[in-house]
Here is the input.
Amino acid sequence: MNRDEQFEKLKEVLNKHTTWPTIYMFKFIIPADNKKIALVESKFTESAIISQHESSTGKYISITIKEVMLNADAIIAKYKEMKGIDGLIAL
Here is the structure.
């Protein structure tokens, strides 16, 4: 399944099981690099709730971000916006 198909499937699931607007939880794993962490966090509004957790080795940071999203397209757009960040894994 290619990336576009994954996004279409996500959109279908979100629209079937979500009442809009909703608080959506994004989860990312990224190398423990302050510039990359700041870049991820900068993609969200000031009202987003952001938490971080360091891996046991300290090499990676798990970032959880909760933000109000208006529709499935806004969520998919956010994931697409994040794809240019080197080393980022979206869960």
Summary: The longest strand covers residues 22-31.
